[in-house]
Amino acid sequence: MLYPIRRAGSSAKKHTAIWLSMVLIGSLLTACGANNGNREELPGNPSPAASAGGAVAEKGNAPTLERTVKDELGHEIKLPAAPKRIFAPYLEDSLLKLGMKPVAQWSNGALGHDYLQDELKDVPKLDLSGGLPSPEVLLSYSPDLIILHTATYAANGLYENYSKIAPTYVFNNASGEIEKSLVTLGELLGKSSEADRALKAYEQKVKEAKEKLERATAGKKVAILRFAAKGVSLMGANYFCGYVVHQHLGIAKTKLVEKENSATVSLEVLPQIDADYIFVINAYGQGTERMKEMMGSPIWNGLSAVKQGQVYEVSDKHWLGSGLIAYEKIIDDTVRLIAK
Hints:
single chain; 41% helix; 340 residues
């Protein structure tokens, strides 16, 4: 704070007053600088810039935080302080868990993540059935952060083109370990506390579900059959619903996928499915004919699970989803169908 200098009766007094004022101003500025330094470097309470590996820059009275991070492919990117316009195809589930919506959502043709449409009804769909959008199309959505959920999305020069539009973070495979990728998303978007709350709530849900399922699934096995246009496959334990049922809920899987993440199923292979329960998924409604063909065969009707009436068709809408919202719905279905 500056005080008015009182006029002195002599030149000497005037010079002295000016000199004292300059000393006072210098002292105040030094003290302010020291206080700022102490606030940023207190032990155990580092500045945001130090924590994130970036630097705090001030524009007028609005401080911003520039963070430099590396993605899972080793790209070094600079993140905006608080990214709001996010393009993250196939990560919509996790974004919603963090309380955010993307600028555009993934879709296969006109079909998006059906189980998320109540929350995403106002978000435009982008058809990714033929690949990711061109840089020109993406630029029209003005993203300030691009997040690609798998390394294959970044191939063929797409990363280089996208990174010219906005900082672009690439996962190796965000669908493989949703908990880990949710934590990373929380860090990128400044939503770590939201990610932590979501994971704790999910852990509690898993715990309660396992207690309900314990008696019904002890010593039993589950098979998850996916009927699609191109064929029939048995889903393993590394992704999507298989990850939830086998790893989170701890229900044993058939021997056909003990070491593999999936297995092609034909009438010849069908007798090897040693499962007490079978979950059936008609992928995007394109497996109807194959379901009729296989389920009408004597081989199918000779399976133990079929004889016991323990075959259940479940919704492809969330059983093929990737994120905690989908996982919670899968848990609800599993408990409802098995823990009777």
